Amino acid sequence: MVICEKKKASVRVYTRQAEPGIYPDGLARSVHFSVKWENGAEEPLNAGYGILFAEGTIRENNTICPKCVADARIAARKDGTFAVTARRVEEDGSEDEESRGKLLLWLTKDFISFEACGLVEEKEAQRERELPRADTAWAAEDVCARALLYWGKLEQTGIRLPERAAVSCAQELEDVRALAVYSDGSVAEKRVDWDGSSVDFETEGEYLVKGRVKSPRYPFPLDRGWGDPVVFFWEGKYYYIATNDNRDDVGFYVREADRPEELFEEDRKRHIILDYDEEREFIQTFWAPEFHEIGGRLYILFAVGPKKWGPQCWMMCLKEGGRITDAGSWEEPVRVRKKDGSFLCEKGITLDMTYIRAEKASYVVWSYRDGINSPLDTGSMLYIAQIDEKEPWKLMSDPVLLSRPLYGWENTEGTINNEGPHAFVRDGKVYLTYSGGSANGYSYVLGLLSADASADLLDPANWEKSLTPVLSFYSVEGQYGPGHNSFFVDPEGNLMIAYHGETAIDGHLRCPGIRRVHFDIQGRPRFDLSADRDLKPELSDVELRITVKPDKGDKA
């Protein structure tokens, strides 16, 4: 056992008591972590939300049998790592006959990343793997501190500016940016509104100027009754499209503005570009429309269904020279097909298709489900396929299963859900968020799949799946069920996330929200940095000493 010299910190593992409608079985019966200090203080990791979850099993009829954990234990090992074990149980906590005599095992060195070893024989493991027998283990203080920082809520702690700046005009002063510093040491560039009213830019000299740091701040909710929000920039304008819950999910409406925040003005015009149409059999489930530029053309990827309930994936392309807000500027919608020419789905439903442009190929990802609301419900799952950008509605490869809702946070209270994928690419990695839980309830969450952008994205082994949600109702106070998101870049160059959520834990009215995506000290995207923690008012007022050196060159 590795024991820190002063024994001032320990890590405790535990499960929680299930509370239906607040923290159900699928969440409560997972491994939670907390750090205990010598003075008796105890701090939960991940705000008290579970971190390690048992995977459900697949029955012979292709349905999912959800699994949970009980009797979590932890121990420090001789090699400096920690072992965490738990019994696998049924969702209601009863005995899991399939795993009798076995334990779930995870290994970690830092309580940040975990190696899942699956089920191991209990007797053999006790003898060979130094398996734990207690719920608490001593750990080094620095290990505990780093784990708390990683799993905790980031917040701004300071601001950085250059000691002085040389400028020749008002525009150069405006271009001077500040760096906001966060609790983990990461930084983010911020625009500053500088007061240059006392500066004579025609005369050389030194000045002390004051300014106020600015950061994107969107109120929540931005609107009510709109789910699956998408903000998209195209040819100098921003556009907004979403699922219209206010009209029973019928019709696609687009808003246009010069800046993203203007899209949500009360009097902003809504343009209908695709509506109820009996002739086309566009009757219901006008779901999750997304704008994507594919091969230089603008498309909307969406789901819609006929009179008999059953949404399927479609695409619609903007005509050359057409206007997004003009229904007549769009070509006839095309239903997505497999590489053999058959429809993407003949049995079951497809929805939430999105597009990924990686380094070597282009792909679409979508959600598929069969047997919904029946004993043979497979749950919704994510599939991926390669496409040719010249004909994106026709797959080039066979569909490949990417993810199923096997964790308790993906399958809460029978939701069995993987849907709403959306991706961005940064620094050679593809980040694909998706949603689990109830699409219009408090349990909706974001999961994250990531892969190298140069990898073959059709190989599931090239993807890494988050063990726990990256955004949940524990992430930002007053926002419940955050999920089904999209990404866009704002006029200042910030990567932003648009999502929907509810304003109360028992609410079911989907409301859009927007916030900045932050990249922490490890380069990991953080989707939970609220505006209040992104930029604090008391850290917003700044001063800068500038030297004015007028440009004396030929201005002709």
From TrEMBL:
<dbReference type="Pfam" id="PF07532">
    <property type="entry name" value="Big_4"/>
</dbReference>
<dbReference type="GO" id="GO:0005975">
    <property type="term" value="P:carbohydrate metabolic process"/>
</dbReference>
<dbReference type="GO" id="GO:0004553">
    <property type="term" value="F:hydrolase activity, hydrolyzing O-glycosyl compounds"/>
</dbReference>
<keyword id="KW-0732">Signal</keyword>
<dbReference type="InterPro" id="IPR006710">
    <property type="entry name" value="Glyco_hydro_43"/>
</dbReference>
<dbReference type="Pfam" id="PF04616">
    <property type="entry name" value="Glyco_hydro_43"/>
</dbReference>
<comment type="similarity">
    <text>Belongs to the glycosyl hydrolase 43 family.</text>
</comment>
<feature type="domain" description="Bacterial Ig-like">
    <location>
        <begin position="180"/>
        <end position="214"/>
    </location>
</feature>
<protein>
    <submittedName>
        <fullName>Family 43 glycosylhydrolase</fullName>
    </submittedName>
</protein>
<dbReference type="InterPro" id="IPR011081">
    <property type="entry name" value="Big_4"/>
</dbReference>
<dbReference type="InterPro" id="IPR023296">
    <property type="entry name" value="Glyco_hydro_beta-prop_sf"/>
</dbReference>
<keyword id="KW-0378">Hydrolase</keyword>
<keyword id="KW-0326">Glycosidase</keyword>
